[in-house]
Design a protein that fits this description.
Layout: E1 13-14, H1 20-23, E2 24-27, E3 35-38, E4 42-46, E5 51-55, E6 61-64, E7 75-81, E8 86-91, E9 95-100, E10 105-109, E11 124-130, E12 133-138, E13 142-146, E14 151-156, E15 167-173, E16 176-181, E17 186-190, E18 203-206, E19 210-216, E20 219-224, E21 228-231, E22 237-241, E23 248-252, E24 255-260, E25 263-267, E26 273-277, E27 287-293, E28 296-301, E29 306-310, E30 313-319, E31 332-335, E32 340-343, E33 360-364, E34 367-371, E35 382-387, E36 394-399, E37 403-408, E38 411-416, E39 437-442, E40 448-452, E41 459-463, E42 466-470, E43 488-489, E44 495-498, E45 504-508, E46 514-518, E47 531-536, E48 542-546, E49 549-553, H2 558-561, E50 571-574, E51 577-580, E52 587-592, E53 598-602, E54 607-610, E55 617-621, E56 633-638, E57 645-649, E58 652-656, E59 671-673, E60 685-688, E61 695-700, E62 705-710, E63 715-718, E64 731-738, E65 745-752
Antiparallel strand pairs: 1-10, 2-58, 3-4, 4-5, 5-6, 7-8, 8-9, 9-10, 11-12, 12-13, 13-14, 15-16, 16-17, 17-18, 19-20, 20-21, 21-22, 23-24, 24-25, 25-26, 27-28, 28-29, 29-30, 31-32, 32-33, 33-34, 35-36, 36-37, 37-38, 39-40, 40-41, 41-42, 43-44, 44-45, 45-46, 47-48, 48-49, 50-51, 52-53, 53-54, ...
Length: 754
């Protein structure tokens, strides 16, 4: 029986998205090395979402990420072809990406048509090259890819009766292709046989469960699932034992390299061991792979990236991993005036903690500063960050498992839990910590507010060393079953707290502990009780994101005088029909920029930028049309000084160089960029350093008005057109700026050269 590999090819070649080089920056982690490959003078390493390489001639370090066009799901295997100067990148969903030598990318998505392969079985485990073909070992069998034509040739199902079985690795030796499987031993087929897509052409030569296979010199070797390395060419003679299943075995530039999680063994062409490495000095590491280039060994690890050393002097070690956060999947962000904080733990849609041990990362002007899990006092599932606005050296981090962590000068110094604070521990299992702190926010007095989920008193405040707790027993039903997302505090001191079971909860202690609950009933008008995020815009409107859409409260001051609050959907016209903005979208975050636009993060549809009134979608960034590595946006942060917008996704973080900045206090620092505007420029002129509600008029040198607007925030943009109709001619243009009451004025010039 033959089964053919039906391919649907989504084919597009690109170098960069049109404006990526100037408008996007990638922030990816390279610490969890999935695989490495090598040429004679360069080594390549891949983490889950991005790659980097190092030249051994120039020591140049180069990264490749979604900003360059590399958009895998999760990278699982890579292979460099010196003959074709191409790097193949395999993913856990079966996506194969070809990186050409000129840095163009070719994406091919393979789909089995006759017998549908489940998504879970499409993972690419290994890529081997022989005779111009790439033999791609997958969880369903082997796919053959022609490196010259960039087309799939065939697919081999190797199991009994043509069953799909996981192939971990394949190799070619003595005219046969050998496949190491996890369930059906080592199987082989004659390479010259044109009918290898017929399962009857494959035979089992060795039984058992195998974790790797490779050819080296006049031999080929296999590793079983307990760590015995066999010289298969000698009739399965035991070559060595490595103590545990191998995670990688390869031939690399005249050496045989075998890697297990805690040992690396290297043999020369005479099968004499030249290195056995049992861990790294002073480092708690887990090995993932290793390779040899020009006498140097490059060691891939699970949390430390790539370590470079020498076969003849392993004591010399250098970490060559590019600077980046601890992980690519970022759960939450917090932006301050001089840094960006990121945490990686969290919970799922039902708020079940992931109990992750992932530390904290901080992006500063000098790069990423990482605080590993070993230094965070055993705090797991870190979900939120709050920085003291009066002392940026004091940082608090919420743990959705252990309580509240306090840092001073980037050093964790104290963990608040049920032993030293009123924080309450939900011990579903005796002796098992379950102290769920989330949603941190400093108010104007310097008090830190937080939620302590699944308790009767979930709202707590830490002020000047003292704690106060507020009960929700008389406010919502079953408070011990409720969980809460990131709160905000408005100018009146009202706390707006999204919950998953009770909608949005408003609270103000200065009004006699006043509560108002906005739910999905006829009064509150939320689309669901599952509220996820809130934001206050520059017009004091409250924007509410839920798991099923968006609502707006017309004014936050209504809380002071009313007892029932109702929200409204934003109705827009699309294709001549009235529709609800972001209808049924799962909204994870809403951020307001300096121009009162709203950046909206969604769970599966990318990121939206909508106008101040919500009537226009200015941008809709997705994985397909932008460098976003994923359409799952966990969080957004905005640098109010530069306008840069950071998107934290489950596959990595990218920053969009935005233009909306916060308003200045006066007009002393107004600047215009670019100036002059040179031929070929297709962007917009940015006028920044403005005060809010400033009037801007642009005229030609003779005083004819060509553009007029009012600022919302610190920046306005001009597309160099006369009221949006036609591009103005070359010349000098005057920019007249005046405050709302005309007490402050400024005049600037911009030269336009067509």
């Amino acid at each position: 029986m033959k089964r053919f590999f039906g391919i649907y090819i989504l084919l597009f070649t690109y170098t960069l998205f049109a404006q990526n080089g100037q408008q996007w920056v990638g922030h990816f982690s390279y610490t969890n090395v999935q695989d490495m490959t090598q040429s004679n003078g360069r080594v390549y390493a891949a983490s889950e979402s991005a790659m980097f390489s190092k030249s051994l001639i120039t020591n140049e370090l180069k990264t490749i990420s979604s900003v360059d066009g590399l958009k895998p799901e999760t990278i699982t295997a890579i292979h460099y072809s010196p003959e074709y100067n191409r790097t193949l990148v395999g993913s856990d969903n079966g996506l194969l990406i070809v990186v050409n030598g000129d840095n163009t990318f070719l994406n091919k998505i393979d789909i089995v048509q006759e017998a549908t392969v489940q998504s879970a079985k499409k993972k690419i485990n290994h890529i081997a090259e022989y005779g111009g073909k790439a033999y791609i070992s997958c969880d369903f069998g082997i796919a053959v890819f022609d490196l010259a034509s960039l087309e799939f040739d065939d697919t081999y199902y190797l199991g009994p009766n043509g069953a799909e079985i996981p192939v971990i690795q394949s190799t070619v030796f003595g005219g046969y292709i050998y496949a190491a499987t996890t369930t059906n031993g080592i199987r082989r087929g004659e390479l010259s046989n044109p009918n290898l897509n017929d399962y009857t052409q494959w035979i089992e030569v060795y039984g058992g469960s195998w974790s790797g296979i490779t050819s080296f010199g006049d031999n080929y070797f296999g590793v079983d699932n307990v760590g015995n390395v066999f010289r298969l060419s000698a009739g399965a003679l035991v070559f060595t034992t490595i103590g545990s299943a191998a995670v990688d075995i390869r031939a690399a530039n005249g050496y045989l390299v075998i890697t297990s999680p805690n040992r690396i063994s290297v043999y020369d062409e005479n099968l004499i061991q030249v290195l056995q490495l049992n861990g790294l000095s002073g480092e708690n590491v887990t090995f993932t792979c290793a390779t040899v280039v020009s006498g140097q060994i490059f060691i891939g690890t699970k949390t430390k990236g790539v370590i470079e050393s020498y076969l003849n002097n392993i004591s010399i070690q250098e970490n060559i991993t590019p600077n980046g956060p601890l992980r690519s999947s970022i759960f939450s962000l917090e932006r301050t005036s001089n840094s960006l904080w990121a945490v990686f733990g969290g919970y799922d849609y039902q708020f079940i903690p992931d109990y992750s041990q992932r530390g904290i990362s901080e992006l500063t002007a000098e790069g990423w500063n990482n605080i590993p899990y070993e230094d965070v006092l055993n705090a797991k599932s870190l979900t939120d960050v709050a920085v003291n606005p009066t002392n940026n050296n004091e940082v608090y981090v919420a743990s959705y498992h252990n309580g509240l962590l306090r840092l001073e000068e980037d050093v964790p110094i104290q963990l608040y839990d049920d032993n030293n604070s009123p924080l309450e521990n939900q011990q579903f299992i005796p002796g098992f910590d379950n102290l769920r702190v989330n949603s941190l926010y400093f108010d104007d007095t310097g008090a830190l507010w937080m939620t302590n989920d699944m308790t009767e008193k979930p709202l707590k405040v830490f002020r000047n060393g003292n704690w106060t707790s507020y009960s929700f027993v008389d406010v919502i039903s079953a408070p011990k079953d409720n969980k809460y997302q990131k709160m905000i505090i408005d100018r009146n001191g009202t706390k707006w707290i999204p919950s998953i079971n009770s909608g949005l909860i408003g609270f103000n202690e200065s009004l006699g502990n006043k509560f108002i609950v906005i739910s999905n009933d006829d009064f509150g008008n939320l689309p669901t009780e599952y509220a996820k995020c809130v934001a206050i815009d520059n017009s004091n409107r409250l924007w509410i994101g839920t798991s099923a859409g968006l609502r707006v409260l017309s004014g936050i001051d209504r809380f002071l005088t009313e007892d029932v609050l109702s929200t409204n959907a934003i109705i827009i016209e699309e294709d001549g029909l009235a529709q609800e903005l972001l209808y049924e979208q799962d909204i994870n975050d809403i951020e307001v920029d300096g121009s009162n636009n709203k950046w909206v993060a969604t769970g599966s549809a990318g990121a939206f930028l909508i106008s101040p009134d919500g009537q226009r979608t200015l941008f809709h960034f997705t994985k397909l049309n932008s460098p976003l590595p994923s359409n799952t946006i966990n969080d957004i942060a905005i640098d109010s000084q530069t306008g840069d917008v950071y998107f934290a996704t489950d596959k990595g973080m990218v920053a969009y160089k935005g233009t909306a900045t916060d308003a200045s206090g006066d007009l002393s620092n107004v600047y215009v960029y670019p100036n002059p505007v040179r031929p070929g420029f297709e962007g917009e002129v940015k006028i920044s350093g403005l005060i809010d509600n400033a009037n801007i008029k642009i005229t030609d040198i003779e005083g004819n008005l060509v553009y007029e607007t009012t600022s919302e925030g610190g920046t306005v943009l001009w597309d160099t057109r006369a009221f949006g109709r036609y591009k103005v001619a070359s010349g000098v243009y005057m920019i007249f700026i005046a405050s709302e009451d005309a007490t402050e004025t400024k005049v600037k010039k911009v030269m336009i050269i067509r």
